[in-house]
Design a protein that fits this description.
Layout (H helix, E strand, L loop, with lengths): L7 H11 L4 E5 L6 H13 L2 E6 L7 H11 L4 E6 L2 E5 L13
Parallel strand pairs: 1-2
Antiparallel strand pairs: 2-4, 3-4
Length: 102
Amino acid sequence: MSPQSITSKQRAHLRSLAHHLKPVVQIGAAGVNETNLAGVREAFNTRELLKVKVLESAPEKARTTADQIVAAMEEVHVVQTIGRTVVLYRPFPDEPEIKLPR
């Protein structure tokens, strides 16, 4: 994770923005692998906030899966995990679209 973490106020703001989103990546029986990570990277090319669905067949729980994704990618933050859904945030490097509260 990046040295600058997001605050609880920023996390709450991101949670409210993510509420209506649908999961764009699914993690299945293979767990977190290069194929899934490529899907997450691709999704982050067009959006800053995304949901990942951790299926019943996945070998790890949602929080562990989220931590594995964060460990494999730079500047990614876990906003929340609810049940088997993980919300991830990565600001665009040049011009972030989502303005976080201070």
